[in-house]
Write a structure and sequence with these properties.
The chain is mainly alpha-helical and 139 residues long. 31% of the residues lie in helices and 6% in strands. It is built from 4 helices and 4 strands.
């Protein structure tokens, strides 16, 4: 993905709910510091959109910007590529951020189809630096 120009941003190491009361600040810091893409990108996406004032403070202290998504592809459920494509297309709108995961088995099949269809519909994929507008993403 990196060799094709895509950025891999941080999403934690083991995908916990960072708001969980049993996680200490040190646990949250460790999860973020060990996360995939750590150091490659200034954006941090909390699993399950689970964020609160403490998580936001730690994210900032580690030099990241919180980056949430608008459309969940649900690729993590293992849904077929065709269902994933249709799900995203039904919800697409200009400026939307779509959630995908590195290790979801059907994502590599769905992305080329989805990108082609979105471009055909007039959408621009990956325009800009990705950081613009990130703090204003919907909760």
């Amino acid at each position: 993905m990196v060799s094709e120009g895509h950025r891999i941003c941080n999403h934690t190491y083991s995908h916990p709910n960072l708001k969980a009361p049993n996680l200490s600040d040190a646990d949250v810091i460790r999860e973020i510091k060990m996360g995939a893409g750590a150091g490659q990108c200034s954006l941090f996406r909390p699993p399950m959109r689970a964020t609160d004032a403490r998580v936001e403070r730690i994210v900032r202290e580690l030099g990241y910007m919180l980056y949430l998504w608008d459309i969940d592809s649900r690729d993590w459920e293992g849904i077929p590529a065709e269902d994933m494509v249709n799900r995203v297309l039904r919800r697409a709108y200009p400026g939307a951020v779509v959630l995908f995961h590195l290790h979801a088995p059907e994502t590599p099949k769905a992305l080329p189809i989805l990108i082609k269809k979105l471009r055909k519909a007039g959408y621009v994929i990956g325009e800009g630096d990705g950081d613009a507008g990130a703090p204003n993403a919907p909760n």
